[in-house]
């Protein structure tokens, strides 16, 4: 098979790019060809020819040249890539698949400017793959489809697997861009509450600070709660350092919140943390429900629940037996979600279209 991919980027350090690069690499290793078109010129595989807005129509014309020999066209998210794929496919007549990664496959269905184009693109696809059951449910609220399947993402377990390491400091860890829907305005106050019972506890947050206003608000929240010297913000760190943090942290926390129609589509970072034997805490009512084995390798709390998050942190930190059990369950959960089990599902989905 030869598959043409449309994506934002192929940067393995970003969530979207890591998903795309892992999947495409797995498909190529399985003996199939791939043509990658992307929006961002990130220095990795792929040709940066895709544009959004009015540029989608010119992009569709360019796509036809690159995908003329492909068997399948596969777009990651409907806006703008699924729309571009649908427009191009009017002339290509290839089998079309769209993966719904989360926000940018649902939010465009509520936007008057993109609603019709997005809905039509979805309906034109022979198959739609949602990365979580929550994403599938949100999608079906806006467009009637009969061909929506769930394939959860996976990670390269060996890349993230580390044995637990002794650390000179006790800290909880979060990984993800500093933006509202990641819920750091909830996790920082929760950390402050937990610190009252665990005085030596610290909090490390790894993520870019492009949203400078939100970062400033987080710094203020930390100061208002008296924990500004115990909260450390990190960004642009190498994978080796991130893996070291995963292996030394006491708990992984990401209290994502739904913001309008923006939500956590899945949460690969939960699997990355689990591969280092780290117990995890996330939120319900989004794609994290598929990324965490609730009650086994981690705890899910309701969104915007500061006290519940603090209680979850304390319940793990104060019980060494529970920590050890959750740590072992995390290793098992991460192995279960290795890419080696995900790639065959996509290959089966491709073959079903031909």
UniProtKB/TrEMBL annotation:
Residues 160-332 form the Glycosyl transferase family domain. Pfam families: Glyco_transf_4, Glycos_transf_1. Residues 15-157 form the Glycosyltransferase subfamily 4-like N-terminal domain. GO terms for molecular function: glycosyltransferase activity. CDD domains: GT4_PimA-like. InterPro entries: Glyco_trans_1 (IPR001296), Glyco_trans_4-like_N (IPR028098). PANTHER family: GLYCOSYLTRANSFERASE. This is Glycosyl transferase family 1 domain-containing protein. The lineage of its organism: Bacteria, Candidatus Yanofskyibacteriota.
